[in-house]
Design brief:
Layout (H helix, E strand, L loop, with lengths): L1 E3 H7 L6 H10 L3 E7 L5 E14 L2 E10 L6 E5 L9 E11 L3 E2 L3 E3 L2 E3 L2 E2 L28 H4 L5 E6 L10 H12 L20 E4 L7 E8 L9 H9 L7 H13 L3 E5 L6 E6 L5 E3 L5 E3 L5 E5 L2 E5 L3 E2 L12 E7 L2 H4 L2 H4 L5 H8 L6 H16 L2 E9 L9 E5 H8 L5 H10 L3 E4 L3 E5 L10 H12 L25 H10 L3 E2 L5 E2 L1 H7 L18 E2 L4 H12 L6 E11 L6 E11 L16 H13 L7 E5 L5 E11 L2 E9 L1 H7 L6 E6 H4 L16 E10 L4 H11 L4 E10 L8 E10 L8 H19 L2 E2 L2
Parallel strand pairs: 12-15, 26-29
Antiparallel strand pairs: 1-11, 2-11, 3-4, 3-6, 4-5, 6-7, 6-10, 8-9, 13-21, 13-22, 14-21, 15-18, 16-17, 18-19, 19-20, 23-25, 24-25, 27-28, 29-30, 30-34, 31-32, 32-33, 33-34, 35-37, 35-38, 36-37
Helix pairs in contact: 1-4, 5-6, 6-10, 20-21
């Protein structure tokens, strides 16, 4: 909001310079964005009277004027403005004057006629942008010879305040003056507003069909208004300095009252109203042409002002073109209403609009202002446009007005929150100057918030007001008393960033998806999953919290495939949500997905597609990054969304922590995917567990290697065989490697040949053949007894 410093100082004028005043307002929580001069620098301009106007003898578009500038000597000036006339008071730049743009006024001859000075337009004085079509005409009361800059109080500043949404009470001069008065312990000089004497009995009927959204609606008929009257220059200037352009006297008055008191208002042409005003919700199919010429289709959740023929305005936003005040208007219906913030919030933006009225109503307007604003606007209109006011029609639903708020404030809580006690007298003084009604209670005070403070609801709000007015910079600075002993940090844990880097190094790209997914997609992938359903979802396909990372990864895969990206490698880390709200478990997981070619397309690359073992290898590299690969196991498993023959549970120290597998063909068909996809997800708390590396001296003695080819049943998991070999191979085994699995000629059907390489090394001596042979015999014997394995000949 912009406001004039001089206008503010008419209400309350602390002994502070402009910058100090701006700093004080900012420190009180009303941030000042900018301070700008209301006019550019100029000098030598006075108020003058055009005593005579004659046509120029050699130019049709020029006039020769005689000017009285108060010096006692008439001056001849050539003027090209079409609106100049004898008897006008105008701003006159004398010879030697300096105008904006470093323009100096000198004696001149125009078409042979001497000109000593210049009659100025508003743009030439820097009071408006662009070029004015005529000179600036002043009021008849302007004193001839008076310095124009002084008379217009142009040594003024526009202060722009950026208010937070909870401080709608300061979107007016009255609200800002109230704040400055409280901060400086000064009384605020408000304009005297008294009810006007009624000149006629004509009323226009008002009906409020939706009192919950519009608890109060006030209207008044004013007859005989002269819309062609000129808005006084002082009002035009105050509007300009507040960032509002003058339009016509009726609109200017309603804008002025809005700036002064904070109450948006609207005036209708009474001749265009029919039967009665009705405040109601719009009906299906209704349309409205707004004042800006835009025609909109109204939705049925929009509150409108209507008459018998249809909508006249969007309540609290903008009026309609048909019922607005025009040059032919003689009688007006002046409205002032209180619309609840929720009734207006978002309505303007939903139609692509933003108005000063909607800006205020969305933040809350004082419901007690409506009648006062009508009286103030009526008084100003009668002074400027004439007119005869009728009785005020007040339709109020008291049960729907905001209730009075009583808040308990404890003295002990003040000290606890602010870090210092405040004297009782100071607390009461601050709150009372803020307009609150304060009474003592057992633990402190009982405070009644004023009608204009919608943001005062709880005890902490009152404490914030005390801190704000007392001064944040006067609160003590205290360091928290806390034990600062270092907490132990597990050095064995690896950060998530290392896991991300490892996945990127394996050719994956990180995806970030929503934590809420489509219920249908989650049902397809995890029919038994239970997760919270959103009460107010963004859309129907984002209505439940994800119970797995799989739905988000599948959606990302579909997005890529639809854009001709056939080779996809994605991973994601985030929370999954399992269980009902009363027993909700939030689990951090890391998941991945791969499909398409095994290697990027290239002249040396093959055309093999990625398979289960490729992704298992990527996952194993992730598991091994913690330095504790032996703690992990893969076991065959059954998952509702994964291929029954290509699915494994991921175990850490025997605990089930994740899944890996190929997408189930039936699921893939239901999703409409034409390619195989391999997915995995593992709990992050297990993935980040690692072990500290320890140094093992290098042996100077030779290694001994034996290769064994064992025939085992086809269904036997190789991991079980490897575990058996490690048990029997002794403590000097340094490496056990699976290097071949063979089925075919020489191997009976239903069996497979598993080729293993075993390497031993002693730290302090050379191992002999007898020792190695004993270990090999133990391995063959034990594997034969457990699994029926035998050496392949």
């Amino acid at each position: 909001m912009k406001f004039s410093e001089q206008w503010l100082r008419e209400w309350v004028s602390p002994q502070l310079a402009t910058q100090a005043l701006a700093d004080q307002i900012t420190m009180a929580g009303l941030e000042v964005d900018a301070v700008e001069a209301v006019a550019e620098e100029f000098s030598g301009v006075v108020v003058a009277l055009v005593s005579q106007k004659d046509p120029h003898p050699d130019a049709d578009k020029l006039s020769v004027c005689q000017i009285d500038d108060g010096s006692g000597e008439p001056l001849q000036v050539v003027c090209g403005a079409t609106n100049v006339a004898a008897g006008q008071k105008v701003p006159f730049a004398r010879v030697g004057a300096s105008l904006p743009g470093d323009f100096k006024i000198k004696k001149a001859k125009l078409r042979g006629v001497e000109s000593r000075g210049m009659i100025c337009s508003a743009s030439e004085l820097g009071l408006e942008e662009g070029h004015s079509s005529g000179i600036l005409v002043l009021s008849d009361t302007a004193p001839v010879g008076e310095d124009f800059r002084t008379w217009m109080t142009l040594d003024d500043n526009m202060i722009e305040v950026d208010l937070t949404p909870n401080r709608g009470d300061c979107l007016s001069l009255k609200g800002l003056a109230r704040e400055v008065g409280v901060l400086n312990r000064l009384a605020v000089q408000e304009p005297v507003i008294e009810p006007l004497e009624v000149a006629h009995d004509e009323r226009f009927a008002i009906r409020v069909s939706d009192p919950e959204r519009c608890p109060r609606y006030i209207g008044r008929v004013i007859k005989g208004v002269d819309v062609g009257a000129t808005t006084p220059l002082w009002m035009v200037e105050r509007l300009r300095r507040s960032g509002i352009r003058s339009i016509d006297p009726v609109v200017d008055v309603t804008n002025y009252v809005m700036l002064e008191l904070g109450q948006p208002m609207h005036a209708f042409d009474l001749a265009n109203l029919h039967e009665a005003i009705d405040v109601r919700l719009a009906r299906q199919g209704e349309r409205l042409v707004l004042l800006d010429g835009q025609e909109i289709a109204l939705r049925d959740n929009t509150l409108v002002i209507a008459d018998r023929r249809g909508p006249l305005a969007i309540a609290g936003v903008m009026g309609g073109e048909h019922s607005g005040v025009g040059l032919e208007t003689r009688d007006i219906f002046l409205e002032s209403a209180f619309f609840t913030p929720l009734a207006v919030a978002g309505q303007a933006r939903s139609y692509g609009l933003h108005t000063d009225a909607s800006h205020r109503f969305e933040r809350g307007v004082d419901p007690d202002l409506t009648r006062l604003a009508v009286e103030r606007a009526t008084s100003l209109l009668r002074e400027i446009t004439g007119g005869e006011p009728g009785p005020v029609v007040d339709v109020t639903s008291h049960e729907h007005l905001p209730p009075a708020r009583q808040i308990e404030l404890r003295a002990s809580r003040i000290e606890q929150a602010l870090g210092m006690p405040l004297k009782s007298e100071m607390v009461e003084d601050i709150l009372q100057r803020l307009g609150m009604v304060v009474s003592e209670s057992r633990e402190g005070w009982r405070v009644a918030a004023p009608s204009w403070r919608f943001d005062i609801a709880i005890e902490e709000d009152l404490i914030e007001e005390l801190a704000r007015i007392h001064g944040y910079n006067r609160l003590p600075v205290r360091r928290p008393a806390a034990r600062l002993a270092l907490r132990p940090d597990g050095e064995s844990r690896q950060p998530l960033s290392r896991l991300r880097h490892q996945m990127v190094a394996r050719g994956y790209q990180e995806a970030i998806s929503y934590s809420f997914v489509s219920p249908d997609l989650q049902r397809i992938l995890m029919p038994q999953a239970v997760s919270p359903r959103l009460a107010n979802p963004i859309s129907s396909d984002m209505a439940v919290m994800r119970a797995s990372l799989f739905p988000g990864l599948i959606k990302a895969l579909e997005h890529n495939l639809n854009r001709q990206q056939s080779r996809v490698r994605l991973f994601e880390s985030g929370l999954v949500f399992r269980g009902d709200l009363d027993d909700l478990e939030q689990i951090p997981m890391l998941g991945g997905l791969a499909c398409g070619l095994r290697e990027p397309e290239g002249w040396s690359s093959g055309r093999e597609m990625v398979d289960f073992y490729d992704v298992k290898g990527d996952l194993e590299s992730l598991l091994a990054s913690g330095g504790n690969a032996s703690a992990w196991r893969f076991e065959p498993g059954q998952h509702s969304s994964l291929h029954p023959g290509q699915t494994a549970r991921v175990l850490y120290r025997g605990d089930d922590v994740g899944w890996i597998g190929t997408l189930h063909p039936a699921v893939r068909a239901e999703l409409g995917l034409k390619v195989d996809a391999i997915l995995f997800e593992v709990r992050l708390d297990a993935l980040t567990q690692g072990c500290l590396p320890s140094f093992v001296p290098l042996s100077r003695f030779p290694e001994v290697r034996r290769d064994l080819a064992l025939l085992v049943e086809e269904s036997l998991p190789v991991q079980s065989l490897l575990d058996c070999l490690r048990e029997q191979a002794g403590e000097w085994l340094t490496e056990l490697r699976l290097f071949d699995i063979y089925q075919g000629k020489g191997v009976a059907e239903g069996y497979k040949s598993v080729a293993l390489g075993l390497t031993w090394q002693h730290p302090s001596r050379t191992l002999n053949d007898d020792e190695i042979n004993q270990l090999v015999d133990a391995i063959v014997t034990e594997s034969g007894q457990r699994f029926g394995a035998r050496l392949r000949s």
